[in-house]
Write a structure and sequence with these properties.
heterodimer, A: alpha+beta, about 25% strand, globular, B: alpha+beta, 4 helices, about 50% helix
């Protein structure tokens, strides 16, 4: 596949770019590195082989040390297709195959032709490798599709302020320690005679506006043209503006579905849906995006999609999810309060009266303890366990009982004295905690979940 | 079967492990206390705060430990400070393994570790070799009616 080679060399050329900006001292070194960048793709390309052998996918390669990996078909969790700009330039796709139990992507075919990608995808989903021609109108209607308006709302209500904080951190490093003086100086010139308070206020507004714009831009880039549809026994998710992605997840690999509502979205009755699959690679941001089932929808719509995918009764949404007993609040705030008092005392001793600001942690801890209790909720309904937790972002996990592998009942000493206990349910790749249940309820859960093996659920829990 | 305790030898094993952790720590506290010229009562209290749990925890942990192979599942109860009960239905067991480290061997003990598709589910640390092997065989016999 010469296209592949060209594509890899183009990446090598990118590696040479730093040469253009280098000083004379490092030029020789950079040229050597650049050459290595040009040669290594050729070697890697020559060494890389993949082959479908019946029910296994065999991949081998390696630059310095050779490796060979065999992936049985039944271990494949999901197949993602990615098309970044550079893939589009060469008319190729990237395929990422995730298998059960792995922490990283098991097989990454960085550049394959679209027909080849199709062939591998069909193999992975258990069909024949021969193409099946299907007219677009035969395709199942999407479970959900996002409009431009949805994306805009998702961007406005989704918290991506963290990205901006990083950018600000960078700017501060670039400008040095006196950046604040610079900014206030500039503000003096632009708005002469204004007080520092106003300057700070304006700054905060600017930062907020920027973060909002950034959030909208990123949401549009990542989730452009988002559709999710059920095709036979798998979920197919397509999305992306510059980088087009198509993920397909076999339904039997779906371990749980999570309904997420941050405080802003909750106020407007909006939510997002994520899918819990055992094999997705662990890089957090990437994981969040690839497990996204629905970036934004009205809460009832999100629940409808979730129950449809799980094959559950639609009334799951209205299942009662009682909160933890109210004594969970003191249980949750005791340690943070002690910590806050400790910080306050130390800060006051070290910094004098202004250090008393350290005590501010205490009411904050109370607020969050109370909020996390307000957001809590747990329920066992026939076939499902529902666990709701969070504070600023409330998440409700819907876990099919059959996916629970083992479960635990735990008490800390503090919980014992409050007659509270936690039930941990372990599903492949992760677990969910129903924290601070009443001790008797927790015991009831523990026994009830233990009976799932006898209730005729043993058919295909995977 | 009714919940059973572990082999009594495991208390000795845990005490050895606890001492292996705490003795170096106490040495650090003693040396540090002398170098910093702290009053004896301060580093003495610190040393006791490390030593006392090391002496008590193995005893409490042994008292807490129970395991039972029941009709449909494996039950374990453990944890001196953090009490954890685990239930693993046989159908969800992926594989079972018995282990014997150098310390286990010194006290003629064997561990049994049970895995599900969600990873290590639980382990029973202090068993005599015969019991461990029969548990391993029994659990492997009934394991894995459920596929992943």
């Amino acid at each position: 596949m010469p296209i592949w080679f060209l594509y890899d060399v183009s990446r090598g050329i990118l590696g040479v770019i730093p040469v253009l900006f280098a000083g004379a001292y490092t030029l020789a070194l950079l040229v050597a590195i650049g050459l290595a960048f040009l040669i290594s793709p050729a070697v890697r390309y020559a060494r890389f082989r993949y082959e479908i052998q019946g029910n296994t996918l065999v991949i081998e390669g390696g630059l310095f040390s050779r490796w060979r990996r065999v992936i049985p078909r039944e271990r494949v969790q999901s197949v993602d297709v990615i098309q970044k700009l550079r893939h589009r330039a060469f008319g190729v796709l990237e395929l990422r195959i995730e298998a059960v139990g792995g922490k990283q992507t098991e097989a990454a075919l960085v550049a394959v032709l679209p027909e080849e990608a199709d062939r591998i995808r069909r193999w992975a989903s258990g069909g024949s490798e021969e193409p099946v021609h299907r007219a677009p109108e035969e395709m199942s209607p999407p479970l959900a599709r996002l409009t431009g308006r949805d994306l805009l709302i998702a961007g406005i209500t989704g918290g991506r302020v963290a990205v901006l904080a990083i950018l600000i951190g960078y700017a501060e490093q670039l400008l040095g320690d006196n950046s604040f003086d610079l900014v206030t100086g500039a503000a003096e010139r632009l708005m002469p005679g204004t007080s520092l308070i106003v300057v700070i206020f304006v700054l905060v507004l600017v930062v907020l506006a920027l973060s909002l714009l950034l959030s909208i831009a990123l949401t549009i880039l990542i989730y452009w043209d988002f559709t999710v549809r059920l095709e036979e026994d798998r979920l197919v998710i397509t999305r992306g503006l510059l980088e087009k992605r198509r993920a397909q997840i076999p339904l039997r690999r779906v371990q749980a579905i999570q309904v997420n509502e941050n405080f802003l979205r909750r106020a407007f009755g909006l939510a997002s849906l994520t899918v819990v699959v055992a094999g997705y690679s662990s890089e957090s941001q990437e994981k969040e995006e690839s497990s996204m089932l629905l970036p934004l929808a009205r809460r009832d719509h999100a629940w409808r999609v979730a129950t449809e995918i799980l094959g559950a009764h639609a009334e799951l949404e209205s299942a009662p999810l009682p909160r933890s007993p109210s004594r969970a609040v003191p249980r949750r705030i005791i340690f943070p309060s002690l910590f806050g008092v400790g910080v306050g005392v130390v800060a006051t001793v070290l910094a004098g009266p202004p250090g008393a600001a350290g005590f501010a942690i205490v009411p904050l801890a109370w607020f969050f303890g109370w909020l996390s209790w307000r957001c809590s909720g747990h329920g066992v309904v026939p076939g499902y366990v529902l666990i709701r937790s969070g504070a600023l972002v409330r998440t409700t996990s819907i876990v099919p009982e059959a996916n629970i592998q083992h479960h635990q009942l735990t008490w800390s000493i503090l919980q014992k004295s409050f007659r509270l206990a936690t039930v941990n349910v372990h599903i492949p790749g992760t677990h969910r905690r129903a924290a601070d249940l009443d001790e008797h309820d927790a015991l009831r859960w523990f026994t009830l979940l233990g009976e799932r093996g006898e209730a005729g659920l043993t058919g295909d829990p995977g | 079967m009714d919940p059973r305790p572990l082999h009594p030898n495991v208390r000795k094993l845990w005490r050895v492990i606890a001492l292996m952790v705490t003795v170096p720590l106490i040495a650090v506290v003693a040396v540090g206390g002398t170098l910093l010229e702290l009053p004896a009562i301060v580093w003495g209290a610190l040393g006791l705060a490390i030593l006392v749990p090391a002496l008590i925890v193995p005893k409490l942990a042994y008292r807490r430990w129970r395991y039972a192979i029941r009709e449909h599942d494996l039950y374990t109860s453990k944890g001196a400070i953090w009490h954890v009960e685990t239930l693993v239905p046989f159908d969800w067991i992926q594989f079972v393994e018995s282990r014997q480290g150098p310390l286990d061997r010194a006290f003629t003990l064997t561990q049994v570790v049970v895995y599900t598709a969600a990873g290590k589910a639980t382990s029973i640390p202090g068993l005599d070799q015969f019991t461990a092997e029969s548990i391993r065989e029994d659990l492997s016999q009934v394991a894995g009616a459920a596929s992943v």
